[in-house]
Amino acid sequence: MRETAEARLIESAQELLWERGYAATSPKAIQRRAGAGQGSMYHHFPGKADLALAAMRRSAGQLRESADEVLSGPGDPYQRLCAYLRCQRDVLRGCRIGRMTADPEVMASPALREPVAATFAWLQGRLAEVIAQARDAGTLAADLDPAATAATIAAVVQGGYVLARAAGSEEPFEQATAGALALLAAARPQEPE
Amino acid sequence: MRETAEARLIESAQELLWERGYAATSPKAIQRRAGAGQGSMYHHFPGKADLALAAMRRSAGQLRESADEVLSGPGDPYQRLCAYLRCQRDVLRGCRIGRMTADPEVMASPALREPVAATFAWLQGRLAEVIAQARDAGTLAADLDPAATAATIAAVVQGGYVLARAAGSEEPFEQATAGALALLAAARPQEPE
DNA sequence: GTCTATATTTTGATAGAC
DNA sequence: GTCTATCAAAATATAGAC
Description:
2 copies of one chain form a homodimer. Chain A is about 70% helix and about 0% strand. Chain A is an all-alpha fold. Chain A has one domain (about 5-185): Tetracycline Repressor, domain 2. The longest helix of chain A has 27 residues, at about 110-135. Chain A is elongated, with a radius of gyration of 19 Å. Chains A and B meet through helix 6, helix 7, helix 8 and helix 9 of A and helix 6, helix 7, helix 8 and helix 9 of B. The structure holds a DNA duplex.
């Protein structure tokens, strides 16, 4: 095999954590998906928590990278904000990082929680920067608080996943983001005719 | 004891499902909290899934009742919408129903998913009604889609929980709801001076 | 580095006495 | 209705051969 067993273990853990969360993912299931035995896994990682941490850090990095691609991409700040809300997502699978907040074992472990906290702190900060730029450029109302609006946009996406998974349909997610875009459009200084 | 063992089992299951989700809640933990033995639980319920379903249905009913208290309460439709976003919540514990969407065993079981789907379908419908009333009363822009805006508001609350739990602080939730209120205010036909 | 065998604990449930 | 065994399977490792 081209990839090392260690890399395959991390990738398998990423997939299973996304699909089933931490508590419901057994070391055995990770090994099976990676095509590795017990001995291999415990040689590379002290235990399940350490492997999960490596997987979560990698997922967090990938999430951050793909979000920044849009938020630092082409277009003026307002357009990049809209692009973030509109960009393609695996809606029914939900957010690889956000779903960890519902896992009791992740929430109980400061080490496992850290990448989750750091990812959302970064996302809200980056969104707030783009919102402040849009406001300074006059494409968003001057009285909008960048930090609050950033939290709203991040929450719409995370909550959209919850509604979509509850319904078993992507529709609530599409509605939630479309509704947010309409509210943002209403908050532009010069309302379009 | 004043309460029956059956009622105490359901209440204990409600609490544990809220704290830890379904997969991570063992029958033994429910029994311990309810002060009931194995035999008692298996006498009243065929198994864990049936007890959890009773607990989820009860939580769903309570959630619906408290949401409707605000949405059908005093004030004009726009004020009731704001009241829904502002009302007191146990932010760091999150949503008893919404958190179930992250539980792999709940999502895999149509029976366990049903109350989750029904609760959010009801909430979005009820929010859309109030939004349509606000629009008809002229207190919200006529071009806002009630269903989309309802999904946005429900998503802000659900996503707010995710951000708050990730941060270990209520602040992101307060920011997300405050940001949503500011956007709604910007979508009023006559902007306030 | 990887394998197989074994150990310990927990889970979710059953059996049968009271 | 409730209790106390008891049980089979799984989770999470550890031990030691190769």
